[in-house]
Protein 1
Amino acid sequence: MRILAIESSCDETGAAVIEHGRIIRSNVVASQASIHERYGGVVPEVASRHQLDALIPVVEAALREASVTWDDIDAIAATYGPGLAGSLLVGLTGGKALALARGLPFIGVNHLEAHIYANWLRSQDADTITIPASEDADEDEWPGDPRFPLLALVISGAHSELVSIPHHGHYELLGQTRDDAAGEAFDKVARVMGLGYPGGPAIQQAAARRDPSRKNPFRLPRAWLNGTWDFSFSGLKTAVLHLVEGAQHGAGDGASRYAREGAALAGDLSIPDLAAAFQDAVVDVLATKTVRAAQSLGVTQVLLAGGVAANVALRERLTRDLAPLGIDLRFPPVVLCTDNAAMIGAAAWFHLRLGERSGLDLDVRPNLQLPFAAAQ
Ligand code: KG4
Ligand code: ZN
C-alpha cells in the first residue's frame, strides 16, 4: 500500500509518499521557521497563510521525488489535530479534496500518534532495508520494528507525556506535564536568553559551546513530583528568567535566589553555561522518570517521539542509563523527530490496514489528545 501523507499542524508544510507504512519514497518539508523567527514564535495567522501557499507545490514535489503519479497512490492521509486550527484546516481540506477528486480512501491522522510511529520508518540512508516477501509486505510486523510492549516519551512543542503502549493503537497515559511542555520550555528560555526560535536547537548549540573542563556555575531546580510520572518545567523556566533579569537589571529587596545570583554577575552571564545548565535540568528529569517508568513496566524498548527527541544530550543520557538495564532506546533521525509528513504516512498505514477510513466530514481537532485507554 502506497500512501500520500500530508502534515500541516503548525509552521511546517509536509508531504510524503510512504510504502507499507515504513519505507520513505519521498519526504518534503517546507519550513516557515525563518519567517516566524523575527517574532520569537509562531504567529498563527501568518502560519496558515503560508500553509496555503506551500501545500500544492509540496504535494507535487513529494510525488515527483518519489517518481510516482497519482495512479500509483492507494490512499491519502492528513493530520487533523492537535495543532493550530487554521494551519490544520489547510492540510486536512487539501487532503480530503484530493481524495475526493482521485476517488481514493482518506484517513485523518492524530499528529501525536504519528510522532510515535516515526519510530517505524526506515532510515532513508540505510544501506539495506529488509522488506518481507511481497505477499507479507503489508504484514503488521517487520523485522526491526519496535517491540511491544513499549514505553514512549512524547515530547514536543505542546506535549510532554509518558505513555505505555502494550500493542498497536493502545495508549495508557502514565504522566504528563502540569504546566509547560518540554519544547515550550526550550522555546521560552531561548527567547529570554536572546537565542532565537526554535529554541531547542538554539539551546543545544549554545550548550555545546561551553568549556566542559570548567565546573558549571549554574545549578538549576528540578521538579521531581515524586510519586507521580508527571513533569513540571515552569519553575525551571522562571529560574532562568530571574537569572537573566538579575544579570541585566540587578535584584531589588525580596528578589529570588536566582535573581540575586544573576545580579551578582552584573551582566557578565555566560549564555553557554546557562544553556547547558537548563538543558541538564530538563534532561535529568525526563531521563530519570523515563528510566524508572521503563523498569516499572518491564519493557525492553523505549521510544522517543516529538521535536525534543532530536535533543542529543537527552538521547545520549537515556541510551547510557537504559543500556545496563537491557533496555534499548529507539529514536527517529532528527528530520523525522520534528514535524514531517512521513510519520503521518506511517501512522495512517496501521489504521488503513484495519479497514479504518475517515469521512469527508472530518473536521480539525486543535486540542486532540492521544486516544488514552484507562490504565490497567
Ligand atoms: O514535534 P515538533 O516539531 O512540533 C510540535 O508538534 O510541537 O516539536 C517542536 C519542539 C520545539 O519546541 C523545538 O524547540 C523542540 O521541539 N526541539 C528541540 C530540539 N529540536 C527541536 N528541543 C530540544 N533539542 C532539540 N535539538
Ligand atoms: Zn509535532
Protein 2
Amino acid sequence: MSLSGRIALVTGASRGIGRAIALALAEDGADVAIHYHRDRAGADETARGVQHLGQRAFVGPASLEDGPSLHSLVEDAAERLGPIDILVNNAGIASRGLPVSKTDPAELERVMRVHALAPHALCRLVLPGMREAERGDIIMISSAATAHHGANGAPYNMAKSALESLAFTLAKEERRHGIRVNVVAPGLVETEMGLRLMKAVAGVESLREVDASMPYGRVIQPDDIAHAVRHLVSSHSSYVNGQRLYVDGGGA
Ligand code: NAP
C-alpha cells in the first residue's frame, strides 16, 4: 500500500480514465476525492469502488468553467478527507474538429478554460496544503495530440500544450516544497470520448474495428493510463519531475 495515508483529488472521475485512476490510487492505499460535473451516478459508482478497496471516498461536483465551484470542491474535499497531496487534472472535453479558419473563438476559449485555466486554478487551490505534506504530486492528463498537432484540432492541441507548459513550469517552482509535477499523454483510449472521436473522424461504430491498426493490436485501456499515474506518484518515482510520459505504444 505505497500510497497509504495520502489523499488524492481526481477530476473527471465519474467515468473513463479518471475513474480508472481513482481506483488505482485507492488500490495503492490513497483516500480519493472524486470530482464530477454532471454524472453524479457515475461518480457514486467510482466512490463505491474506492470504498470497496477499503479507502475513504468523497464525491464533489464542479464545473471546470466556474472558479467558485472549484474552490468549494477543494475546500469540501480537504474538510472531509484532509489536505490534498495528489492532484490529477484529468477532466476534459474534445474540440469540434474544425480548421482554424472555421473555429468560433468562443469554442477556443471554452476548451482553453477547461484544459488549461481550470488546472491552473486547481493547482493554486491545493498548493498551500500540498506544500505542508511530506510529498506532493500533480499529474496532468494531456494527450499524444501534443506530439502531432494534427489538423482540425487547434483548440484541443493549444489547450493541452498550455496544460503541459503549466506542468513544466510548476515542476521547477514547487520542487523545493517536495512536489513533483508530471504529464501523462495518452494516445486513443477506450472511453466515451475516445469512441466519440473515432466515430467522428473514422466513422467506426466500435473501437474493436481499429484494434488491429493500433500498436500492440489493441486500443489503449483506461487502466494503461492509471498504471502510469500510480507509478509516477509512488515512492518508485521520487526523482522524476517535469516529465511527459507518452502512453501511446510508441506513437504513430
Ligand atoms: P470522458 O470519458 O469523456 O470523461 C470526461 C470526464 O470529464 C467526465 O468525468 C466529465 O464529467 C468531466 N468533464 C467534462 N467536461 C467537464 C467540465 N466542463 N467541467 C468539469 N468536468 C468535466 O473522457 P476520457 O476519455 O476519460 O478523458 C479524460 C482525459 O484524458 C481528458 O483530459 C482527455 O482530454 C484525455 N485524453 C483522452 C483520450 C481518449 O482517447 N479518450 C486520449 C488522450 C487524452 P461528468 O461525466 O460528470 O459530466
